[in-house]
Amino acid sequence: MPRYVALLRGINIGSRNRVSMPELRAAMEGAGFPEVQTYLQSGNVVLESRAKAESVRRKVEGLVAERSGLEIAVVVRTKAELAAVVRRNPLGDVATDPKRHQVTFLSKKLAAKAVRELEAAATPEERVVVAGREVYAWHPSGVARSKLWAKLAGKGLGVTATSRNWTTVEALLELAGG
Q1: Residue 26's pLDDT is what?
Q2: Which end is more exposed in the chain, N or C (fewer Cβ atoms within 10 Å of the end residue's Cβ)?
Q3: Residue 2's pLDDT band (boundaries 50, 70, 90)?
Q4: How far apart are CA 176 and CA 170, in angstroms?
């Protein structure tokens, strides 16, 4: 059965948008998703489904809304798509700290204007590469004051976006069996 990774945007950050991972796992299993696993508390779910990715996305969003009352956007990738993200890694030669190497997963490709804005926001030491429905970013000084990170984490891209550090990306691929 196909395996998917569902990435919930903006949950369990501080005291807002709290979603219990054990309750989410139970809800997904109750809704018919077999082999549900979560990683960390930040909205990373690996599951199986015969449905297409868009259907999985809608169902997960609906379950979160039903169980928590929160409208949380979800981005879904197949195991094969996530494996391609890891293989493609255009920043592997420069991104030496996996906690400062981010991948932003997008619901669809960015408009050219949004890509230009991201590139313009990067400092000379930062790197950003937009590849299909992912944005790879390297923040060697961290994300705290990064204008690039602020753009990636905000809602101004014109698409649903959620970011994970490289450690999490690799862990999710391993969890998915990749």
Answers
A1: 87
A2: N
A3: very high
A4: 10
pTM of the complete model: 0.93
Spatial neighbors of 12 by CB under 8 A, at least 6 apart, are 18, 19, 41, 42, 43
> Of 41, 57, 80, at which residue does a domain stop?
80
Domain boundary among 59, 80, 101: 80
In the sheet with 161-165, reading across from the earlier edge strand, the strands are 127-131, 134-138, 101-106, 161-165
CA-based nearest residue to 90, from 136, 126, 149:
136
pLDDT digits (tens, 9 = 90+) for 55-79: 999 999 999 888 888 888 999 999 9
Same domain, residue pair 61 and 107: no
**What residue numbers bound the domain in which 98 lies?**
88-175
Whether residue 100 is found in the same domain as residue 150: yes
Q: Which two tokens stand for residue 111?
A: 């408009």
116-135 pLDDT per residue, tens: 999 999 999 999 999 999 99
Instruction: Give the CATH number for residue 74.
Output: 3.30.70.1280
Mean pLDDT score of the chain = 91
**Residues 6 or more apart whose Cβ sits within 8 Å of residue 72:** 8, 9, 10, 11, 17, 19, 43, 61, 64, 65
* Same domain for 34 and 76: yes
Q: What are phi and psi for residue 78, nearest 5 degrees?
A: -75, 165
